[in-house]
Design goal:
Number of helices: 13
Distance between the termini: 105 Å
Number of strands: 10
Largest sheet: 5 strands, parallel
Shape: globular
CATH architecture of the largest domain: 3-Layer(aba) Sandwich
Radius of gyration: 25 Å
Structural class: alpha/beta
Helix content: 40-55%
CATH class of the largest domain: Alpha Beta
Number of domains: 2
Order of helices and strands: HHEEEEEEHHEHEHHHEHHHEHH
Length: 378
């Protein structure tokens, strides 16, 4: 027994000191990694590695689109909703409505395009902007229309340039009277369609490393320290916005990025006109503008100069109107509505509209649509 114990101790002494430290650091990393994954899950409702690819499919013209014939329960700490799409990838009710290429005679047909706000992220279909808009317009029975259809082809995360490609090759076939494009956060949009995130890429060591919650939160921490050290910076990326967005504080038509964005909206308008329809760009801000109490959290994600951002988009929208591109900026009206409501218009953690937010926006936009449609009739 003594001989066996002595042999074991002698063998253990042959392990170098660095190996013990390596095992300790590895165990510490695993503990931190697991803890951060649990924290991410608790605060977002999803695992860090889970990008919910089951919601989307690749598309040959727009890069990706909504998965057809989808029935999905979307659960987060802030909402629990059901999502349905039809065979064409439109967001629909539980009845899975299908749409023909031509609407019924006398029916105002609106095609809704844009990212997740158009899609109705975070609410059941009945509370989406599109359905709330349809109900309000149908109840008003204005302009001689016997009915209203809103075809919701919002696709979460899809840039405006990608939506334009989808409209050019597919959307125009649905013969809409009005095409409504949602743009949030900033009217600054790239003219080039973004590549599909669903395209299979060669796996590299870094692509696997980015699945680490430790690396993710380390990057967030470095960003916070860097921003606090450097201070506000024009063109600085804003994280957590759900789209590529930067701080833009001064509208200048000679700015190359502004010029590029104007070209995009001009092309969009021209394509919609050629299809015999009209384009309306609807712009609205992110939650920290409407709910100022959120700003302390958003500052950590790169948000600076909020008043200048508001002015940038106000001037941009006005410029588009002068160019014959209909643009409706909802910022001031949403800020005013939030002052008179105890209910939040945006979720606190998630960036999207609550049921109350969708209802409020639908009311503002329906009033605008009725006004322009009545004016056209006369």
């Amino acid at each position: 027994m003594t001989t066996h114990t002595s042999s074991f101790l002698a063998g253990s002494q042959r392990w170098p000191r660095w190996a013990g430290w390596l095992c300790y650091l590895l165990a510490l990393f695993v503990f931190i990694e697991v803890s951060l994954h649990i924290f991410y899950r608790a605060t977002t409702g999803a695992w860090y590695w889970d990008s919910t690819p089951s919601l989307y499919v690749g598309d040959e013209v727009s890069g990706y689109t909504n998965k057809p014939n989808l029935s999905f329960r979307h659960v987060t700490p802030e909402f629990n909703v059901d999502i349905f799409t039809n065979s064409q990838g439109f967001r629909v009710s539980r009845a899975h409505e299908e749409y023909g290429y031509d609407g019924a005679p006398g029916t105002l047909r609106i095609l809704l395009l844009g990212p997740s706000f158009a899609y109705g992220w975070g609410v059941d279909y009945e509370w989406t902007f599109g359905e709330q808009l349809r109900q309000r317009l149908a109840a008003a029975r204005f302009g001689g229309y016997s009915g209203v259809e809103v075809l919701n082809h919002g696709v979460p995360g899809l840039p405006a340039a990608n939506s334009l490609e989808w409209f050019r090759y597919k959307g125009r076939a649905y013969s809409p009277h009005l095409v409504m494009l949602f743009v949030y956060g900033s009217l600054d949009e790239s003219e080039e369609p973004a590549p599909s995130p669903l395209i299979t890429k060669v796996k590299t060591v870094w692509s696997y490393a980015k699945q680490s919650a430790t690396i993710y939160y380390t990057g967030v921490l470095i960003g916070i320290v860097y921003r606090s050290w450097q201070g506000p910076e024009e063109g600085q990326p804003i994280e957590g916005a759900g789209r590529a967005m930067t701080n833009r504080t001064a509208f200048n038509i000679d700015d190359p990025r502004v010029t590029e964005s104007v070209r995009l909206y001009t092309r969009f308008r021209d394509e919609v006109r050629q299809a015999g329809s009209r384009l309306l760009i609807v712009h609205f801000p992110l939650p920290y503008v409407v709910h100022p109490e959120d700003l302390s959290r958003w500052v950590l994600h790169g948000v600076t100069n909020v008043r200048q951002q508001i002015q940038f988009n106000r001037e941009f929208c006005s410029f588009l109107v002068r160019q014959g591109i209909a643009c409706l900026d909802l910022t001031d009206q949403l800020m005013e509505a939030a002052k008179h409501s105890r209910e939040r218009l945006y979720y606190w953690l998630d960036i999207h509209w609550t049921e109350r937010g969708n209802v409020t926006v639908a009311q503002i936009v329906s009033d605008y649509v009725m006004k322009i449609e009545i004016a056209r009739a006369h």
